[in-house]
Amino acid sequence: MSKVKIGTVQMSCVKDKQENLNKAIEKIKEVAAKGAEIVCLQELFTSLYFCDVEDYNNFDLAEAIPGPSTDALSAVAKELGVVIIASLFEKRAQGLYHNTTAVIDADGTYLGKYRKMHIPDDPAFYEKFYFTPGDLGYKNFNTKFGRIGVLICWDQWYPEASRITALMGADIMFYPTAIGWATDQDEETNQDQYNAWQTIQRSHAVANGVPVVSVNRVGFEQDGAMKFWGGSFVTNAQGKLLYLASHDKEEVVVTEVDLAQTDYMRKHWPFLRDRRIETYSPITKRFIDEE
């Protein structure tokens, strides 16, 4: 299969977990009716972005994976014949939690999960309070519509993560994400931040010769202090934008991606072939001091 139809669901969330899940399911049905074969939801789509505060009560939002949400989504995937990429708050054990994405195949089979590796700790993004860094390594999943690599939000800034995921054979890389602007910032700062976010992910497509899909939430949260900037997008294997969402609207869109372009791009721009892997061992150091 050369071409695949990617469904992206950019939506706003409310406080009620079940309401968000129900809304996501309706959006999946909507995008499947438009022809989507793989549907990607945004990071932590069953809740508001709760990591703006350090509150022990928020741990109650977590669940087992597989668990109730994946069970519900598996039924939807089977009914519609679509692959679903679902980012959830995982309770692994008592006192042990992860930011995790589950992948469900088009026949409803739960294929496994990826646990977010890079965990931020910034103002209004206090994720280290909640999430243990992933310990499953980087992951690919063989689905009905292709081999997909999944990373999560803060992972998007790290070329090492995308490189390893691509080297594992991903046909396409997905980034469920949740990022936005502080509403007291000036517009120039806002645009600089968004452009950096989009550019780094498009560069992963260029460097690896694989399409990239990034799906972000939208809307005001944190009592109006944060505007999640939407801007979800799909690129081809050369980093060309095939779809770009707005900054302030919910959008349910299908974008066709040609996976065969990877072979073409890697032959004509052979960045993968020309890597000098024997010179890369220093990258495992925290910093390369002169001594």
Automatic annotation (TrEMBL):
The record, for CDD domains, names: CPA (cd07573)
Keywords assigned by UniProt, alphabetized: Acyltransferase, Hydrolase, Transferase
Q: What superkingdom does the record give?
A: Bacteria
Positions of the CN hydrolase domain: 4-259
- Write down the InterPro entries for this protein, in alphabetical order: Aliph_Amidase/BUP, C-N_Hydrolase, C-N_Hydrolase_sf
Q: Which GO terms describe its biological process?
A: putrescine biosynthetic process from arginine
User: Which Gene Ontology molecular-function terms are recorded?
Assistant: acyltransferase activity; N-carbamoylputrescine amidase activity
For this protein, the record's Gene3D superfamilies field holds: Carbon-nitrogen hydrolase
Query: What is the designated name of this protein?
Result: Acyltransferase
